[in-house]
Amino acid sequence: MLSAITKQDIANLDAANHRRLDLVPEQPRETYLPYALPSIGEEEIAEVVDSLRSGWLTTGPKTKRFERAIADYVEASCVIAVNSCTAGMQIALRALGVGAGDEVIVPTFTFCATANVVVQLGAKPVLVDVGDDYSILPDEIEKAITPRTKAILPVHYGGQACNLDAVYAIALRHNLAVVEDAAHGIGTYYRSMKVGSDAVVPPGVRRAVAFSFYATKNMTTGEGGAIATNDEALAERMRLLTLHGMSRDAWKRYSASGSWYYEVLADGYKENMTDIQAAIGIHQLAKLEGFIATRRRYAQRYFEAFRFLPELDLPVIHAAGRHTYHLFVIRLNPDRLKIGRNVFIEELKALNIGTSVHFIPLHWHPFYRESFGYVPGQFPNADVLYQRSVSLPLYPAMTDADVSDVIMAVRRVIAANRK
Ligand SMILES: *Cc1c(COP(=O)(O)O)cnc(C)c1O
After folding, report:
1. pLDDT (0 to 100) of residue 321
2. 210 in ligand 1 pocket by Cβ < 6 Å?
3. Least buried of 16, 25, 36, 185, by fewest C-beta within 10 Å?
4. Among the atoms of ligand 1, which is closest to the Cα of residue 86?
5. pLDDT value of residue 258
6. Rounded to the nearest whole angstrom, what is the distance from the C-alpha of residue 155 to the centroid of ligand 1?
7. Regions in the chain scoring below 70 on pLDDT
8. What is the pTM of this model?
9. What is the pLDDT of residue 2?
10. Residue whose C-alpha is closest to residue 229's, from 220, 219, 238, 221
11. How many other β-carbons are positioned within 10 Å of the β-carbon of residue 283?
């Protein structure tokens, strides 16, 4: 039997760890490690060339194949491929009836696209605070509901699912629609269910889930996205909106099975996916589980390397579900470091390590401040998280040696700046 670990043991471990920290090699890596890079293989290249040679460039057979493959993967009955996650969220909100004068509840800790799509429909993004996992707080959603509230737009931050049970319970109670921003969420599990799967949504809630296949996301089509839903009528409406509001199967109008005739049923958008994008996506999806396994392994290395450093707080991981580690965000402990987040980033850059910040909370940006009266300092958790957060490089195109370089560089910057 091992005896329980005492506070003294931990102090000894910390001290030993610090001594090791101060012994890290002097030589930084010679080449710059970008914050993110896609993993594109010969399969994707050959498939794109095949599309280019085939004469069918825009939405066509490969897009349909890709939609079916995504539907199978996330276990959703309906999937529509679009040209971005932003487009997916916009079309979903529009199809769910969000319009002028409505309010949509959005976490402040997200990318601007999550709120811009709301604004573009004439509605107001009602920002709310997040918890220490960077996910929307259900209590804050509840407090933000007014008679104008039409929908909730939660984000699966960094590849970890938000509390969907709580979100859907609120949606059901207040008769609200839900659009999940799953830009980071392809391959994420909420408990035992994939994000986007039909099984997640309780009967009686109308909802759609938008994925991103932007170049830096878990898988890519260059630019691209997809919307998943269990609701066939909603899917039909969304499909119409992706291609000018033209009646069903307008994309086939130049093929032998198509017809020249169509009717415009809504003032739709031009946000369809092309076969060139789908050609990349078909192979990226086939590799996604491998990408996620690599992300998870590298994340584990970061956890092991940093876990005894009191200068850092590591990501908060829920016991259930599966985190895909789209992001690995560390938080600096200002009581233990002489430098702040911005200098920390500069020092890592000087050691040839690229990093990023996800995200500048929406209530800090001039547009939302001027348009809706938000002010920095308004959301205490997000304000603190923002000032302390740094996203470390974590992607399958990195090697184990790259991961070691990041670990060494982080330790070195900490060792040089410890209080
Ligand atoms: C990347 C991202 C988006 C936008 O995705 P696009 O496919 O580029 O439109 C939306 N929300 C979040 C949280 C993102 O990180």
Report:
1. 97
2. no
3. 25
4. 9
5. 76
6. 10
7. 1-26, 249-250
8. 0.93
9. 43
10. 238
11. 20
